[in-house]
Design a protein that fits this description.
By secondary structure, the chain is an alpha+beta fold. 28% of the residues lie in helices and 29% in strands. The protein folds into two domains: 324 residues, Rossmann fold; 107 residues, Tumour Suppressor Smad4. It contains eleven helices and 28 strands.
Length: 615
């Protein structure tokens, strides 16, 4: 009886396939021999896809039985650096908070560390970096650049070196730009915002209490939005004597920065007494972001003319050790030797190296325990930090009828040959979370009853053989969908961003053919291509076909114009090659050489309303 149902359904699917293929090739029914050849080929492909589908289904069933499916979340870090370049940071008759650009030095150390950093378990992760300069307004300097390659980091350092003064201080503009970047999901990693500032917001002229209160409310709203998106906000206040002498900073803005950091998950607040403290603070931040245990400064000396030779103790049981080296002079050379006397190089297995002119970061997986040797040459100050990641150690204890598992974690302490002098970093933490306390979990081991065997045949067993029928129908449906999609016209051409936020000198372009869309939108965040700070939206759709090429039509909502002519809502305009589109602050060029043919030259510049004649 069951096999009769199988044969009946097989005839039904075969008949449907025959008539469906006949309909697709209806325009060529006179070539029946060709149609039969196509039908035979389709049946062969159907059989092949059925065999492949059975194998894939069997494999998926085995995977599902072996382990539960878990959603993989991004494990890398995308650090968004917001650096205050207002006038107060520069030398103003000796009162500037950072005239020597030590904040840029600290940023270089942080980005270099991320280039070599791995995960909490020692695994390699992809980390990204962004830099925003702000003063009177916020400026996007670097957007979500991967930090693994030294060429990429050096390109970043050239862009951020010696920034010019940017006028007054608008922190809200910088935070809004950082949120816009994270909304665009420019990097497949978890974002974290680091805000470096030397004090309070400033504006030209005086502002009343109501305006200041409104600005504070705006800052709190931005912090709440970051908390909603699970983005940590880390505030580093460059609190020099001049900054702390300002009563408004102490009474109003200093508590606000602490409050905003505490609002976000894993948010932190630090104070640097001088700009020289910033590298140490940034090192502490990046070690925490990457899951390492910060053991602090192990060497801080001036390298003598004869050179420096120190022993560094690495204990056993470490998943990873990281040495972070900051050189005062780029010409200084630093070498590191393993306990067996072998020179450490990036070619060794399990070694990740990142460096720039003044920073060297070694990340060593499963480091051998013993005395490591550090040699330095070239006069100048040298600072070395050491971070570690422990191997998990578990001590299971089993009793009857209970079993107890206790996980222990021990901190490794590095011994050095001389007493190091730590940087004078005075972080004032925002409300902190209590440290996690190891807990002991006990559970009762209850034996399961033996499975009962049944000789009764299930009523479903006769129909279970029909489960293979969807494997026959699925390739057929996929083939039909593919043929249908191939015949539908799609948006074609290229959009090139010439000017506006996020533009890179006309190098940023979108190939519309790769999207295979019937309707491509760009502009506001909900579009296929989201443009920074855009509130308007434009749409490109294909039109009728001429000589094998489809027309392209443009519509817009908001502030959108084509070749300087504004578009009205609900009206369409035919596109041609090299047309200029203006959307809010963005200026784009549509490129499509196929539309440069004489058949597509516009005879007039009149609009067409959809589903109507020319007006």
């Amino acid at each position: 009886m069951a096999w009769g149902r199988v044969l009946w359904l097989t005839k039904l699917i075969s008949g449907a396939a025959y008539y469906l293929l006949q309909a697709w090739d209806g325009r060529k029914r006179q070539h029946r021999a060709s149609c039969r050849r196509r039908l035979t080929g389709c049946i062969l492909w159907l059989l092949i896809l059925t065999v492949i589908g059975c194998g894939v289904l069997f494999g998926l069933m085995q995977i599902a039985r072996a382990a539960p499916v878990r959603q993989e979340l991004p494990t890398g870090r995308w650090v968004q650096l917001l650096i205050d370049n207002s006038n107060s940071n520069y030398d103003r008759v000796g009162t500037g908070t950072d005239p020597e650009f030590l904040r840029i030095t600290a940023a270089r150390l942080l980005l270099t560390y991320l280039g070599a950093a791995g995960g909490a378990d020692g695994s390699t992760q992809a980390h990204y970096g962004s830099v925003i300069f702000f003063g009177t307004e916020a400026e996007e300097v670097i957007t979500a650049v991967p930090l693994k390659q030294p060429q990429q980091r050096e390109a970043i350092f050239r862009l951020i070196d010696s920034p010019p003064p940017m006028g007054w201080t608008d922190h809200a503009a910088a935070l809004e730009l950082a949120l816009a970047q994270s909304s665009a999901q420019l990097a497949p990693a978890s974002p974290a915002v680091i805000l470096l500032t030397d004090g309070k917001p400033e504006w030209p002229g005086n502002r009343g209490n109501s305006e200041i209160a409104a600005y504070k409310t705006r800052l709190r709203q931005l912090a709440a939005e970051m908390a909603n998106r699970q983005i940590p906000l880390i505030v580093v206040l460059l609190a020099t004597e001049a900054t702390l002498a300002d009563s408004e900073t102490n009474i109003t803005w200093r508590p606000l920065w602490q409050e905003m950091a505490a609002m976000t998950p894993d948010g932190r607040y630090f104070e640097a007494q001088t700009a020289a403290d910033l590298p140490g603070i940034y090192h502490e931040l990046v070690s925490a972001l990457t899951g390492a245990t910060n053991q602090g400064v192990i060497i801080e000396v001036d390298v003598p003319a004869a050179g420096l030779d120190r022993l560094l103790t690495v204990e056993s049981g470490l998943a990873q050790v990281t040495f972070v080296i900051h050189k005062a002079e780029a010409s200084q050379t630093v070498r590191l030797y393993k306990p067996d006397g072998q020179l450490l190089t990036a070619n060794n297995a399990g070694i990740r190296l990142a460096y720039s002119g003044h920073e060297i970061v070694w990340a060593i997986e499963n480091p051998p325990a013993g005395e490591w040797q550090l040699q330095a040459a070239g006069t100048g100050a040298l600072v070395v930090w050491q971070d570690v990641q422990q191997l998990p150690t578990s001590t299971p204890t089993t009793t009857r009828p209970t079993a107890t598992a206790t996980t222990l974690a021990t901190a490794a302490v590095a011994a050095v040959t001389s007493s190091p002098t730590r940087l004078s970093i005075s972080p004032t933490s925002s409300p902190t979370r209590p440290a996690a306390t190891p807990t002991t979990v006990s559970y009762a081991a209850t034996p399961l009853p033996a499975p009962m065997l049944s000789t009764e045949r299930s009523s479903w067993s006769g129909w279970s053989r029909l489960l293979i029928l969807p494997l026959f129908a699925l390739p057929l449906l996929l083939f039909g969908w593919y043929r249908h999609a191939q015949q539908r016209p799609a948006v074609s051409g290229t959009l090139r961003l010439l000017a506006g936020p996020g533009a890179s000198g006309g190098q940023h372009l979108i190939d519309l053919d790769t999207y295979r869309r019937r309707r491509f939108t760009f502009g506001q965040p909900a579009s296929d291509w989201s443009l920074l700070r855009a509130v308007s939206q434009a749409v490109i759709e294909p039109g009728s076909e001429q000589d094998g090429v489809h027309q392209m039509w443009l519509t817009g909502e908001g502030s959108v114009s084509l070749n300087g002519q504004p578009l009205q809502s609900g009206q369409r305009y035919q596109l041609a090659d090299a047309d200029l589109i203006t959307l809010d602050q963005h200026r784009l060029r549509y490129e499509n050489l196929h539309l440069n043919r004489p058949a597509f030259n516009r005879r007039s510049h009149k609009f067409l309303i959809p589903n109507s004649k020319e007006v």
